[in-house]
Write a structure and sequence with these properties.
Layout: E1 2-9, E2 37-44, E3 50-57, E4 67-76, E5 82-87, E6 96-97
Length: 107
């Protein structure tokens, strides 16, 4: 399992519910500009599937030990298709600690 930190721009999403910015700040694949920016960390499982995705408001230099993250967890079937997406604490509040993601309750 490994983590990757990227920047998220709301408004344009892929199958996981997030979008990636190019190094110049433009959206990969185009899309709306002027939307809310987030810092994102992705934790991958042994099959290189996104298992946990954490988002924190950009600009606050969020550390992984600070309670500023909203975290979602993906589960997969044997064919590596997403079967469920659940939120830490069952909500989208920015009040979780990324470093504790495996121990949180998801619904």
């Amino acid at each position: 399992m490994f983590d990757q930190k990227i920047v998220l721009q709301a408004g344009t999403t892929d199958k996981y519910g997030f979008a990636v910015l190019n190094p110049d700040g433009s959206l990969v694949g185009g899309g709306a500009s002027g939307t809310t920016m987030y810092t994102m960390v992705i934790s991958y499982d042994a099959n290189a599937n996104a298992e946990y995705v954490g988002e924190a408001p950009a600009g606050n230099l969020a550390g992984v030990a600070n309670p500023v993250w909203r975290i979602k967890k993906f589960t997969y079937d044997v064919n590596e298709n997403v079967t469920s997406v659940a939120w830490a604490d069952g909500d989208t509040d920015f009040d979780n600690i990324w470093a504790n993601r495996a121990a949180l309750s998801y619904s």
